[in-house]
C-alpha cells in the first residue's frame, strides 16, 4: 500500500484566488481565514488537478477568477516512487488543457485514477437533495478512479445514447425507415450498458460493508442505514427493456429506459432519508458515505487517497469531526487538507492526531 502526497501547489487566477504558492511537507495542512478569502477554492484547485474538474461547478469558465481571462493551476504529486507534475490551463472561450509531466493529455479520461482523492464538503448534501443524476455521478466517479475500462465504457455509452436520442427526435411517430439504425443503437447500448450495470452491482456490493461500518461508528449503532441500488435492469434484461419501451421512446423522443436511469436510494431504518431523515442523520449518512469512499478507493487502487475536508468544523458536531480525524491514527493514513475559519479551533482538534501539521493563513 502506497500513499499519495501533494508536495507543491501553484495557483494563478483560480476563482477568487488571485495567485498562491504552497509547499506541503507535513501530513496535515489547514487553510484558515475569514469567509471569502479563497480557502474552499484552494481545496477545489487540488481536487481539480486530481479529478480533472471542479468539485463545485461543472462549467469550466466558473473556475476562472472574475475579470480575468485565464486560470492556471499546477501541482507536484508523489505517487509511489514517481513525481507527477500535473498542470491545468484554461482560457475563456477555449477548451481546457490538462498536462502531465509536460505532455498534454489527448483525453482527460486518461488522467482519472492517477491521483485518488476524496472531498468532504457541505455541498455533499446535494447527494440527498438533488436528482438521480447526482447520485449516478457519485457512483461513476468512485468506480472510474479504480477502473479505467469502466470509464471508457461509460463515455461510449453516453455517446451512443445521445445519437439514439437524436434519431428518436428525427423519427417522431411516423418515420419507420430509421428502424434499422435504431436497432443498431439498441445493440450497442446493450453491449455497453450490461457490463456497466454489472460493475455497479459488484462495486456497490463491496462498498456497502464499508459504509455500514462507518455509519455504525458515527451513529453508535442506534439505527440502520442502507444503500439500495435501483435499476430497470434488476428484473429484466436490457434488450427486452428496449423492445418493450419502443413505442414510448418514439412518443417521448428520447430513451426512457437504460442504465442512465439508475439511482442509489439512501435510507434510515428503511425510510427515505430525503423525506424522513433529521439534519443529524443526514450529516452522519453523508460523512459515512464519504469515509467509505475513502476506504474503497484505498482498497481498490492500493493507494491511500488525498482527503480534502472543506468547512467541516462549522457543519459538524464534535463526534462527527472526531470520526473523520480518527483516520489519521491509521497506519496507512496519507495526507489531509482542511479549511476552517477559526485557527485556534482547528489547531486544538488537529493536535489530537499527534501528527505534524501546518496552518496556512489566507
Task: Map the helices and strands.
Elements: E1 2-14, E2 17-23, E3 28-32, H1 39-51, E4 70-79, E5 82-91, E6 97-100, E7 103-104, E8 117-120, H2 126-129, H3 132-144, H4 148-171, H5 179-219, E9 225-230, H6 238-244, H7 246-252, E10 263-268, E11 271-272, H8 273-276, H9 279-301, E12 303-304, E13 306-309, H10 312-315, H11 318-325, E14 335-340, H12 343-351, E15 357-361
Parallel strand pairs: 1-12, 3-14, 3-15, 8-13, 13-14
Antiparallel strand pairs: 1-2, 1-4, 4-5, 5-6, 6-7, 9-10, 10-11
How would you describe this protein?
The chain is of the alpha/beta class and 362 residues long. It has two domains: 1-116 and 305-362, P-loop containing nucleotide triphosphate hydrolases (Rossmann fold, 3-Layer(aba) Sandwich), CATH 3.40.50; 129-302, RecF/RecN/SMC, N-terminal domain (Glutathione S-transferase Yfyf (Class Pi), Chain A, domain 2, Up-down Bundle), CATH 1.20.1050. It is 43% helix and 24% strand. The strands form three sheets. Strands 1, 2, 4, 5, 6, 7 and 12 form a seven-stranded mixed sheet that branches. Strands 8-13-14-3-15 form a five-stranded parallel sheet, with helices on both faces. Strands 9-10-11 form a three-stranded antiparallel sheet.
Low-pLDDT stretches are: none
Q: Which CATH class of the largest domain?
A: Alpha Beta
In the CATH hierarchy, the architecture of the largest domain is: 3-Layer(aba) Sandwich
Please name the CATH topology of the largest domain. Answer: Rossmann fold
Main beta sheet, described? 7 strands, mixed
What general form does the structure show?
A: globular
Total count of strands: 15
Task: Kindly state the percentage of residues in helix.
Answer: 40-55%
Structural class: alpha/beta
